[in-house]
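Long-time lurker, first post. I've been practising inverse folding by hand and with some scripts of my own, and I keep getting stuck on stretches where the structure tokens seem ambiguous. Below is the full token string for one chain I'm working on. Before anyone asks, I'm not after the true native sequence, just a reasonable design that respects the backbone. If someone could post their per-position residues I'd love to compare against what I wrote down in my notebook.
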């Protein structure tokens, strides 16, 4: 009995100790795993919060830079002649006026802020368009002259206040299914999406080359590339665009290349109707502001020096 008892004691007790040690080891491993996962989660959360904080800071700094650039640009526009930089006599390249242009080629205002300015008189007035020029523009995409006439007549019928349908147009009956026709000046160039017979390609072409914020004749020196090709010809337009983009254009050069003289329908200066597009980038953050304005630097009485038509 004593031998058997001694034998049981020497075999069973060590096995119980080994079992307890194994359970403890598993518990330690599980606890270690849980703590590791928790530490990883906390680390990832902290990194995410740091990234978001940095992004928020960059966004705020980009916004501040944008507002600062806007103020500087407007100050320059109010205090300097709004002439393309190549016409200025000053050689001070630190001024915005030495870098700007009014035909929508991007230029730097200050660190991380880029601007585009488009003289609205360099576009076709959509309310009362030069029909001949607008037809030529549409014809660069639409090969059928009949389709061109349909598009233009529909555009004109959409805006006029009468119900007399043009030869290729469409008045209220043509839009019965849609419920109404504009019968008035479009409030936005994007309003043309409702007009029949205008394809997406033609719509984009018209949007890029027309405006409702313009008064008077065409500023040919600030015309878009598409319009330049129409009024000056392909060869002259290519030369003009290259010189403009390199700040080497002047009125004399423009006239010599294009052969176009100023008249009641076109002129060689920049109007006060402008589109300004500002973009500020800092790290991963981007801030942007676009606005259509009318500047009146010499406004008196109740008149405002700046009239903001649209801003977002």
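-- Answer (accepted) --
I ran through it position by position. Result:
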């Amino acid at each position: 009995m004593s031998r058997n008892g001694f034998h049981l004691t020497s075999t069973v007790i060590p096995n119980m100790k080994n079992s307890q040690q194994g359970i403890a080891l598993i518990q330690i491993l599980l606890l270690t795993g849980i703590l590791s996962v928790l530490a990883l989660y906390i680390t990832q959360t902290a990194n995410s919060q740091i990234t978001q904080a940095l992004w928020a800071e960059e966004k705020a700094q980009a916004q501040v830079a944008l507002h600062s650039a806007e103020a500087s640009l407007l100050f320059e526009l109010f205090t300097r002649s709004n002439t393309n930089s190549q016409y200025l006599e000053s050689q001070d390249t630190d001024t915005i006026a030495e870098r700007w242009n009014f035909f929508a080629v991007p230029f730097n205002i200050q660190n991380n802020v880029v601007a585009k300015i488009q003289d609205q008189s360099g576009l076709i007035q959509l309310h009362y368009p030069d029909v001949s020029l607008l037809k030529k523009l549409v014809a660069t995409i639409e090969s059928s002259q009949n389709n061109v006439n349909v598009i233009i007549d529909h555009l004109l019928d959409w805006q006029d206040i009468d119900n007399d349908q043009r030869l290729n147009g469409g008045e209220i009956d043509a839009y019965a299914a849609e419920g109404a026709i504009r019968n008035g000046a479009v409030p936005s160039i994007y309003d043309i999406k409702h007009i029949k017979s205008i394809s997406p390609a033609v719509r984009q072409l018209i949007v890029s080359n027309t405006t409702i914020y313009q008064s008077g004749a065409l500023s040919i020196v600030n015309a878009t590339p598409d319009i330049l090709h129409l009024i000056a010809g392909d060869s002259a337009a290519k030369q003009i665009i290259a010189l403009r983009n390199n700040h080497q254009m002047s009125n004399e050069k423009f006239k010599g290349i294009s052969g176009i003289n100023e008249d009641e329908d076109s002129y060689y200066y920049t109007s006060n109707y402008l589109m300004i597009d500002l973009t500020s980038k800092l790290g991963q953050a981007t801030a942007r502001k676009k606005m259509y304005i009318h500047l009146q630097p010499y406004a008196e009485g109740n008149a405002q020096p700046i009239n903001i038509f649209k801003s977002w």
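A couple of notes from the structure itself: The first strand starts at residue 107 and ends at 110. Helices lie at 2-79, 131-139, 145-159, 200-209, 225-232, 234-245, 251-258. Happy to go over any region you disagree with.
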